[in-house]
Design brief:
homodimer; about 450 residues; alpha/beta; six-stranded mixed sheet; four-stranded antiparallel sheet
Chain lengths: ~450, ~450
């Protein structure tokens, strides 16, 4: 009986217990961005430590400035065999807007982007259960702040350099191809966040008494935000594109993961495309930075009308960054641009919320070959290479601090509506991920 | 003993009962714009009918398509004497944002812009109590939707033409001079509201997966809103200023109510002024129309960051209008402008929420003389003429349907922070209004 069959049988035999643990894990509303959910995030890290310990790994929660890192290791293979650091996260995005979730979130109905790290843990636990030992060394680094900028892990990583030492990092948090084939992800964009609040008056004003007189902060805010991006979709902030490289033909040829206007329209039911003029969708999503208004709010949002000039207006912005761009430099350039363009007398509060840059890894990393072989056997389909338009905040840090390549895999589907109401990650793909990691461990 | 002294004594003698009724009236949260408060708005109209009936007037609630009109009359003077229709409203603006109210709203701590109509009612009740009869005929028309566009009264007015027939309309809802002298208000700007929602996708999207691809509705919205007004503060919508007249020197000379940059900065603690280039504050506030973003909201508004491209973004807009402008025409021009400027594929929902135009009345109306005389005696100060930057939605309708002049008075102060947290209307000015109306009835 070959390895994949053996692990598949183990999975089916243990399915009730696997499902029970998995649903328990998903049910914890570990929203790292919401201070009200802090205890839930901690409960989720406790759950993982206990789950991994029960599975035979040496597991612990490492405190950080933010939420703890769940660390676990299985090092019986010894120093003559390679060590893989498997990275994932146990936190999720805020579930707001609640009214758009068809079924309540966190009900654990086989859904959530916490699913990917869970199958990777389960593969190692299964190896221990079936064979008692693994042919490679495994370390897990599972953080609680991936969805809110990885501050804790970022700060702690330099002091954990020895503990986390590995030959390669495997990030288990990516999408597969639409047909279920694996996409080996060789890089991701960076991401950094900012919040800007304009204050025109201490209190809301009457739009009749002061209309035509007071500068409405909503007006000032839309004027500034509209200036950030020009009509061709290009960010206008001076210095924003400094260091950004045009993709080479070689890169276009390598990254064959498909991305067409048609597929975007069909998969996401979006009609309005905002890509930079002259950039294909793939170029815009993988090789170009973005400026996104994730939230805007000022004044009255209730029913009917209320004739106020609000005292304040706020926007939450994030930029996706590509190699060559530095978060702090970009944040400073944007802050300078905003302050320069604000009407006289309007108060500006600008907060840089942190972020991390983009990273790229080499196709010649041995893990890439093992992963491709495993995925081909599990899915029956050849894998492709991809980059990620999204971000793995610590991807760049792992490269810099540990000095190793960072390879991404995953069986998410972009149509999972990740980060929006009704996430789902079905048991079919969960098992596929489980088998791929199991086989990869052997193939390496 | 002269009339003012007599009414003053009556007021002081009855102060406990007056205060009790007044506070009871203020405590009802009659927010006409909020469907959840419908029963409170109705309770407030019931309260007024009962209060006026107890005071000896023939009072009733007249049903409309919206909230009822409280109507009351005292017609014993007979057809040989003039009839004044006194207009006011018993509804208030939404109290949102609640967290900014230092003391809870509707606690009835001698505050609220419902106070003005209450003293006018009390003057007539006092006339009945003191003299048993009045030298003029009085009708009250007190509506429940002034703060939400007066739809009910607007639609009902033509059929109430006979019932409401009068020689002049007195609107009791305006500000006094900062020093307490009366401002006789000869006109007000109109006001109309719109809501626009842009939808880019059915669900919120991931700003990594779709960032650079999907057109963010927040971006589309700020681009469109920023286009509505140019950098000189002029509305750019074609046709917006059609029919708008430059004020004459005569008008500038007549309306001496003061309005300076200094007073605006000091009274409202605002630094950023948004008046049209080349317009004084008074011209901008009284003679020019506005385009105001009263509310804007799209995407994530919670703590921390959430990297979404929201599915929708909404803005609530109102325009203050001046004579020569028509609400529907302006709303159509704005809707056309928005639809023309929206990115291809973005869905637009545009709702015109109703509105009414501006009005102007003649300085030669006999009520103006009576009012000025009464106010001079009560306050000891000569009154001035003013226009209102705010709106009395039905001002224009009264002129058109009843064919009479519409004169405004009031003892509000612009520093009452009307329509924003911590409204207040103190008993001092309440009594001043009470005495002015009482004396005006005699002087007429």
């Amino acid at each position: 009986m070959d390895l994949i069959q053996r692990f598949s049988e183990w999975f089916e035999e243990n399915l009730p217990q696997i499902k029970e643990s998995y649903i328990q894990f998903l049910k914890i509303p570990s929203i790292s961005a919401d201070p009200a959910r802090s205890l839930d995030v901690l409960a989720c890290s406790d759950f993982l430590v206990s789950f991994l310990s029960k599975g035979g790994l040496k597991a612990e929660a490492i405190p950080t400035d933010g939420f703890p890192i769940v660390y676990a290791e299985e090092m019986q293979a010894g120093p003559n065999f390679p060590t893989i650091l498997i990275y994932g996260h146990y936190d999720v995005q805020p579930v707001d807007p609640l009214e758009l979730w068809i079924s309540p979130p966190f009900e654990g109905t086989e859904s959530d982007d916490k699913g990917q790290i869970f199958y990777a843990c389960l593969s190692v636990i299964a190896w221990k259960a079936i064979f008692g030992a693994l042919p490679v060394n495994i370390k897990f680094c599972i953080e609680g702040e991936e969805e809110s900028s990885s501050i804790g892990l970022s700060r702690a990583l330099p002091s954990l350099k020895q503990k986390f030492a590995a030959d390669v990092v495997l990030i288990v948090d990516f999408d597969s191809m639409p047909d279920g084939a694996l996409a080996v992800t060789l890089g991701a964009r960076g991401c950094m966040g900012m919040e800007v609040t304009l204050t025109g008056s201490l209190q809301d004003l009457h739009s009749g008494h002061l209309g035509g007189i007071a500068y409405n902060p909503n007006r000032a805010l839309v004027e500034i935000l509209a200036k950030l991006v020009d009509s061709s979709g290009k960010v206008t902030v001076p210095g924003f594109y400094e260091g950004v490289q045009k993709p080479t033909q070689e890169e276009f040829d390598l990254f064959t993961f498909p991305m067409t206007e048609e597929s975007v329209r069909v998969d996401f039911e979006i009609e309005a495309l905002g890509n930079e003029k002259g950039c294909s969708l793939k170029e815009a999503n993988w090789f170009r930075p973005t400026m996104e208004i994730n939230g805007i709010f000022g004044g009255y949002a209730g029913p009917g009308m209320k004739t106020v000039i609000p005292s304040k207006a706020t926007a939450k912005l994030t930029c996706r960054l590509v190699p060559g761009q530095n978060c702090e430099t970009i944040a400073e350039a944007i802050e300078y641009f905003i302050r320069k363009n604000v009407p006289q007398g309007m108060k500006v509060d600008f907060t840089y919320q942190g972020g991390l840059g983009a990273y790229r890894s080499s196709i010649t990393t041995p893990l890439v070959r093992a992963l491709k072989q495993a995925a081909q056997e599990v899915t029956g389909k050849p894998s492709v290479y991809a980059l990620a338009g999204g971000s793995i905040p610590v991807g760049l840090l792992f490269r810099d601090v540990l000095g190793v390549e960072v390879i991404g895999m995953g069986y998410g589907l972009s149509t999972d509506a990740i980060h929006s109401p009704n996430e789902h990650f079905d048991m079919q793909r969960f098992k596929c991920g489980f088998l791929t990691v199991a086989k990869m461990i052997e193939a390496l």
